[in-house]
Amino acid sequence: MLVDFDQIMVATGETITMVAFSLIFATVIGLPLGILLVVTRKGHLWENAAIFSVLNSIVNLFRSIPFIILLVVVIPFTRLIVGTSIGTAAAIVPMVLFSGPYIARLIENSLLEVDPGVMEAAQSMGATPRQIITRFLIPEALSSLLLGLTIATIGLVGASAMAGAIGGGGLGDLAITYGYQRFDTVVMIITVAILVVMVQALQTTGNILSRKIRRR
């Protein structure tokens, strides 16, 4: 094997860093975007066809671009934001742009699953639109939202591996540089095994938290 244990740990840490920060920033973008996609659609709290159409088109546009292409397309923007187009920090930018709209769509679907009767009951009690969103809509959808974020996080793990194709660091970069280019099968097996363990841990944790919230 051409790499040592320390290199594998560093690469694993870089992957976790990319996924964690990308998830945070993407959720900051995706959560309000997903809520707006729900409340501005026809028949909802803040019905506005123009805003809904614009936001819906933006989400569809970004979701239609394959991540490996997005990595290359946004290189100038990445350089503008972090000053470089390679490394862990640079990989976070396209990962956020890729996952933000995806999270927005997951949040939209979760909120649309909430029984309309919940909002009708809230309106009958005199709740404002803001109160309906924060005290009724989101709490009712919280279990589903957690599962959606779990799916998004797993998607980011896969995206972080692809980011290694352009020097994004992490396990993907390790697998390509040492496993593929230098024909080191052991490195490939180790990186795949670590990624599988990460995905399984994330999915299990998400399922447990979702069940606990659903029972409350």
Describe the protein's architecture and organization.
With 216 residues, the chain is mostly helical. It has one domain: MetI-like fold, CATH 1.10.3720.10. The chain has 9 helices and no strands. It has helices at residues 5-39, 49-63, 67-73, 75-82, 88-112, 116-124, 129-163, 170-180, 185-215. Helix 7 runs antiparallel to helix 9. The radius of gyration is 20 Å and the shape is elongated. The mean pLDDT is 88. Keywords: Cell membrane, Membrane, Transmembrane, Transmembrane helix, Transport. One of its GO terms (biological process) is D-methionine transmembrane transport. Pfam families: BPD_transp_1. One of its GO terms (cellular component) is plasma membrane. It is a multi-pass membrane protein.
